[in-house]
Design brief:
Its cofactor is Mg(2+); Mn(2+). Keywords: Hydrolase, Magnesium, Manganese, Metal-binding. Belongs to the Nudix hydrolase family. By secondary structure, the protein is of the alpha+beta class. The chain has one domain: Nucleoside Triphosphate Pyrophosphohydrolase. The protein contains five helices and nine strands, in the order ββββαααβααββββ. Strands 1, 2, 3, 4, 7, 8 and 9 form a seven-stranded mixed beta sheet that branches. It has a two-stranded antiparallel ribbon with strand order 5-6. The protein is globular, with a radius of gyration of 17 Å. The N and C termini lie far apart (41 Å).
């Protein structure tokens, strides 16, 4: 039987500040992407994609150690996520890196944190950098450039605010098989997002 490929997806929520006064409105907005898909045309999806070897590179260990993030501290009791297999780190770490990288590639939202930021924030924030479009294109063309981005700007993927949510397996009738882990996070503010125009044709925070 063909091995299923590991993949990650990130559900990004934005707090609805008007929900306290209008109970008919939801508590959160969701970031949704309109994906170009052979099997599900015009389908709305969350950011995500398959794991790249760059996501489980041992270089990430040094990047996390250079920051305030305790590498591996945000583990989960899920055995499927805690396993290491043939990788250099637990799945609970590199699947989150995949989700953050894919979110950056597909809609330009960069969920990273400065190495010297010691604030224990419960929410995610967009990490604004110079030449962000330049770096986004580099990461799209070569996922290993995400490592170089973090080295250049002295930051790391903010895996501490990414939490496991669900698991999805590709239906039998679809040839490509993915074992996709869904994670969830909440943004402090609504951030502008733009599609990559490669896999994603439109994106936005829907009410």
């Amino acid at each position: 039987m063909k091995k299923w490929k590991d993949a990650s997806s990130l559900i990004v929520m934005v707090a609805n500040i008007t929900s306290k006064t209008d109970l008919k409105k939801p508590n959160f907005h969701l970031l949704k992407l309109r994906k170009k898909s052979e099997y599900f045309p015009k389908i709305s999806v969350f950011p995500g994609g398959s794991v790249s070897p760059a996501d489980y590179s041992s270089e990430w260990i040094h990047i996390f150690q250079g920051g305030d993030c305790k590498f591996g501290s945000n583990q989960t009791s899920d055995k499927n996520l805690s396993s290491v297999d043939d990788y250099d780190m637990p799945k609970s770490i590199f699947l989150k890196i995949t989700a953050i990288r894919e979110t950056f590639e597909e809609c330009g939202l960069l969920l990273c944190k400065y190495n010297n930021n010691k604030l224990n924030e419960p929410f995610a924030q967009h990490f604004q950098i110079e030449s962000i479009d330049f770096w986004r294109n580099k990461v799209i063309n070569d996922p290993f450039q995400f490592i170089n981005l973090c080295k250049e700007f002295k930051c790391y993927p903010n895996i501490e605010v990414i939490y496991p949510w669900s698991n999805w397996l590709t239906p039998r009738h679809i040839p490509k098989k993915f074992d996709a882990k869904f994670f969830i996070t909440t943004l402090v503010n609504k951030e502008p997002v733009t599609p990559d125009n490669i896999e994603i044709e439109s994106c936005g925070v829907n009410i």
